[in-house]
Design goal:
Layout lengths: L1 H29 L43 H4 L4 H5 L7 H5 L6 E5 L5 H10 L4 E6 L2 H14 L4 E5 L12 E7 L8 H11 E14 L5 H6 L11 E2 H11 L2 E12 L2 E9 L4
Parallel strand pairs: 1-2, 1-4, 2-3, 4-5, 5-6
Antiparallel strand pairs: 5-8, 7-8
Length: 275
């Protein structure tokens, strides 16, 4: 059952990446002046700019191709490739939560098309580094094309599951994530991986959908789908208890706005102790 959910999530976000890529190619080809974010200079030799991608598999489309919300400031988005902006499918702005500093090493779990990785790379500067981990090849391809179009040299996109991050212990200063923890079928493993990859004193700054404590799993499922980031959401107490069990301290979860009745977009912060 859990692997069926994982595959459905993968198909959903693969479809999103393919739709964005097709749209960006069409926009590039409709305009004789190439814009930042046109993939022409990153395509394999001989690939037609306007080629239509292979059919996306059947998928729910409730998250696909929404314009980014007001959670991102227009000045933040300025200069980013269109493919990164159009495929922004999160529920908040984790960079506003994480308060990144120059020289820090940042990891974005479920990095998608790379918007939060690219924005993180700007904030940590040339002495820092921003990593993105995603399990979807189509999103990774789009993210790498976006990084190339943006001229970002301090980023890396890695294929992997957020339950088993392909980075060493203690190699990260800040873990961010934008509405992705709720998509995992093994959330304790995700929280444990956050803790493992963080250096002592490291922190998390996550935005996610969180359920009222009174809502049962069935009631959460009534309010939305798993791929729509609703059915798989943890409650406030479940999220806090999970972080504490993983070893985190200074845990705080603050609701920001409603996503569905009894379901909220929330800011989650926590720290890995120095000892």
């Amino acid at each position: 059952m859990s692997e069926n959910v994982v595959e459905k999530v993968r198909r959903h976000y693969a479809a999103a990446a393919l739709m964005v890529d097709t749209e960006v190619r069409a926009t590039c080809c409709a305009d004789t002046t190439e814009k930042p974010g046109c993939a022409r200079d990153t395509e394999p030799e001989g690939a037609p700019c306007c080629a239509k991608d292979a059919d996306a598999e059947d998928t729910d489309t409730e998250l696909l191709l929404d314009e980014p919300s007001a959670m991102y400031d227009a000045t933040e988005l300025a200069g980013l490739p269109r493919g990164a902006v159009r495929a922004s499918l999160g529920c908040g702005n984790p960079l506003a939560v994480a308060e990144l500093r120059a020289g820090e090493r940042v990891l974005d779990l479920g990095s998608g098309a790379g918007i939060d990785v690219l924005l993180s790379a700007k904030r940590v500067g040339p002495t820092g580094r921003a990593y993105g981990v995603d399990m979807t090849d189509e999103m990774l391809n789009l993210a790498r094309a976006n990084a190339s179009a943006a001229g970002a040299t301090n980023v890396a996109f890695l294929k992997g599951r957020i339950e088993a991050v392909p980075l060493p212990d203690g190699s990260i200063d800040v873990v961010i994530s934008n509405c992705v923890v709720n998509l995992s079928v093994d959330k304790p493993a995700v929280l444990a991986e956050m803790y493992r990859v963080l250096a002592p004193g490291g922190r998390i700054g996550v935005t996610d959908i969180v359920a009222d404590n009174a809502l049962s799993l069935a009631e959460r499922a009534e309010r939305g789908t798993y791929v729509g980031c609703i059915a798989g959401a943890l409650s406030f107490s479940e999220f806090k208890d999970g972080l504490v069990a993983a070893g985190f301290t200074e845990v705080s979860i603050t609701a920001t706005h409603d996503a569905a009745p009894g379901m909220h977009s929330a800011i989650i912060r926590a720290t890995k102790p120095t000892i």
